[in-house]
Amino acid sequence: MAVQFFDEDSGFNLKNKNLHKKWLKTIAEQEGYKVGELTYIFCSDEYLYKINVEYLNHDTYTDIITFDNSEEADMIEGDIFISIDRVKENSARENNGFQTELQRVMSHGILHLLGYKDKTKKDKKIMREMEDKSISLFDKI
Asked: Do the annotations mark residue 20 as ligand-binding?
């Protein structure tokens, strides 16, 4: 398992990296997957906006973009870009703590790699349930 965390233009430094790695691995294992190369890139709104325009042709700001690099059926690999600016804003709007919102977005990315979608109302409900399950799992690690 190679989970890595990087910062691009946000000044964010994830604390307890080893705990987060174990947590992410556990989320995948509970769904029957292994984690290969998984990279989280914490960035600014502008950095993620440029990626959204360039690679997805979406002229919008977003909190997360997940690129699936998986090649084997039972192993997930990918690059997950997270806007720290957006996490802070969502945290304030939803009246969540920053750490909880960060965990929600981090789990959202890995859940996409595990096959969960969020385009329909039904899919969004399932995704939110899985995010909540993942957040509660963090406290048990």
From this structure: no
**Eight-state DSSP code of residue 53:** H
Task: Give, to the nearest 10 degrees, the angle between helix 84-94 and helix 98-113.
Answer: 120
112 is in an annotated binding site: yes
Which of 124, 57, 119, 52 shows the shortest CA–CA distance to 82?
Answer: 52
Q: Domains of the chain by range and CATH?
A: 2-138 (3.40.390.30)
Each residue's pLDDT tens digit, 25-81: 999 999 999 999 999 999 999 999 999 999 999 999 999 999 999 999 999 999 999
What pTM value is reported for the model?
0.96
First to last CA, the chain: 17
Is 58 assigned to a binding site?
no
Three-class SS state of 57: coil
Contacts 24+ apart (CB under 8 A), 129-135: 131/104, 131/107, 134/23, 134/27, 134/103, 134/107, 134/110, 135/100, 135/103, 135/104, 135/107
pLDDT digits (tens, 9 = 90+) for 86-108: 999 999 999 999 999 999 999 99
